[in-house]
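Sample entry (79 residues):
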Amino acid sequence: MKANESNYLNAMIQAKTMVNMGLITEQEYMKIETKMAKKYSLNSLSIYRLNDLILSPFRVINMIPNSKEVNEDGKHSDN
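Predicted structure, serialized as tokens:
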């Protein structure tokens, strides 16, 4: 791995930590990702880019309701 790729990944890990802590939004994270890719000379097809092309909320697995719900007494029930 080249130094520019390593530096890009280090910067993006810091940015993702900031998202997880609620310090920045996902939109701000994507702006940072674009700027860091440009700064470290990574093109849009680079395997090191951290763009999540599959948006989690729209994945089928996240759209299917959970078949087992927990009751107030803590027991599972089938719906």
